[in-house]
Design a protein that fits this description.
With about 325 residues, the protein is α+β, with helices and mostly antiparallel strands. It is about 55% helix and about 20% strand. Helix 1 runs antiparallel to helix 2 and helix 4 crosses helix 6.
Length: about 325
């Protein structure tokens, strides 16, 4: 559109200059000059028309970069139409502002040059036990393509600093302040982060709804807690307490293990005792004598040379000697 306006301005100036020269030369040269000027003017008009058509045609095509969406503006007014990525035909008088639809990351860190804001941008929070902790985090979010025109019209291209940043600080403080410092440092960190993510999405939705957009304009994909810093004295006390708890739990485990091992040995000993009692009650002298007779009979049937002394063993059982000894 700017190119067309410049072209029109140039043509206007050229026409005024040509008109002035024509009047001057016509007064001097008369009818012959008029005829030649008409021919030259006709050629110039066709050239100007061709130039206008070529310029308008070139402005009627616009290519949106991959991962972006275009927002149309006509003489400063933001239109509702959106231009998708790729090559598109548009009104040659509109300008296109591109907005990214890719996932963006907004980082708040105490380390300089790590986040969007230079210097210390971490969030200081007073926990439920009255201590101050410093939270560093990153938020992943993306723009809803259907809300691109509305967001650009309402907040401009720098909507992140006007919507996302204040919502992050408010949501994280609201949620993390409900926990005590030890829970945030140890067991409840992930739980607090998940609640902060949902609270952040709700906060952004409320802000956009108050501004006139009823749907989700910005989608929060994830909140990543990078670090939670406590005062050194508090940190050391918590670490010592956690270490003591772990040692106590380890000792409790060892005691339970030993108790179970002692119980297993008692059961094993009782089983052996019961077995011995059963066996001793089932074996009588008569059974042993009978088994001895059966064994003697089997040995007597074998082909091996042997000497058998009848009635000389204990309880009248035979004594068998190997003849080779």
């Amino acid at each position: 559109m700017i190119t067309l306006l410049v072209l029109f301005a140039v043509l206007l100036v050229a026409s005024l200059v040509a008109r002035a020269r024509f009047i001057k030369n016509f007064k001097q040269n008369g009818h012959d000059y008029l005829t030649s000027w008409i021919k030259a003017a006709g050629i110039a008009a066709w050239l100007c028309l061709a130039l206008i058509v070529i310029t308008a045609a070139s402005n009627a095509f616009y290519s949106v970069n991959s991962g972006n969406i275009g927002v149309e503006k006509l003489f400063g007014k933001v239109l509702d139409e959106r231009v998708p990525e790729g090559l598109n035909t548009i009104n040659p008088f509109v300008t296109v502002e591109e907005m990214t639809l890719r996932t963006q990351s907004y980082t708040m860190s105490a380390v300089s040059n790590e986040g969007q804001v230079k210097g210390n941008d971490a969030i200081d929070i007073i926990t439920s036990d009255g201590l101050t902790v410093t939270v560093e985090l990153s938020v992943l979010f993306r723009l809803n393509p259907n809300a691109a025109s509305w967001v650009f019209r309402s907040f401009g291209p720098d909507y992140v600093s006007q919507i996302v940043r204040p919502a992050i600080r408010s949501s994280v403080r609201d949620i993390f302040s409900k926990y005590n410092s030890q829970d945030l440092y140890s067991t409840k960190r992930e739980e607090a982060t998940q609640k902060a993510q949902q609270h952040l999405q709700d906060a952004i939705d409320q802000l956009t709804k108050r501004s006139g957009y009823g749907l989700e304009a910005i989608l929060v994909e994830n909140v990543l807690t990078r670090d939670i810093k406590l005062p050194d004295a508090v940190k050391n006390a918590i670490e010592n307490k956690i270490a003591a708890q772990q040692q106590a739990e380890q000792m409790e485990y060892v005691i339970q293990k030993e108790q179970k091992e002692a119980e297993r040995k008692r059961v094993e000993a009782q089983g052996i005792r019961d077995f011995q009692t059963t066996v001793s009650q089932g074996i009588s002298p008569q059974l042993l004598q009978w088994k001895g007779i059966e064994a003697t009979t089997e040995l007597a049937k074998s082909a091996n040379a042997k000497v058998v002394v009848i009635g000389s063993g204990k309880d009248g059982l035979p004594i068998i000697f190997d003849s080779k000894q």
